[in-house]
Automatic annotation (TrEMBL):
Family statement drawn from the similarity comment of this UniProt entry: Belongs to the hemerythrin family.
Keyword Protein transport (UniProt): no
Molecular function per GO: metal ion binding; oxygen carrier activity
Keywords: Iron, Metal-binding, Oxygen transport, Transport
Protein name: Hemerythrin-like metal-binding protein
Amino acid sequence: MSTALNVTLAWSDALALQQPEIDRTHQEFVELLNALAAVADQGLAALPAFDALLAHTEQHFAMEEGWMAACKFEPQNCHSRQHDMVLELAREVRKAAVDKGEFEPLQRLVPALAEWFPQHAEMMDAALVFTMQQLGFDPAQGEPVPAGANAPKGCGSHCG
């Protein structure tokens, strides 16, 4: 009998950053995370939901990385490092499940992501959206910020 993980992350106005593309992407992340939570305790049967979340997250982060590059963020910044760490961990969790039949890491990852995501969105992604607005960068147009523009230091947040 399935007991499904109790992940309480729900899309709300508190997660919205008032940037349509990123808000849509974030809402999809929340939906995919909750879909995974519903099956995370089902062993191999959880892998399709995990793979859907991983594929979405890879595309989600690549989109943000592209925006950061267009806004002239420093290549090695804390926002990008968070993306790298999350993807590396997710890939290791998948490898443990597939190669070793270890599903506890997958079950533990779900609530960890539910806790991490709102903080990441509130700090890192909000700083990205603010920077894009300040620079006049329209992600729908995708044109890089002119070289003379006041590019941010680091990632645009106050992480130092």
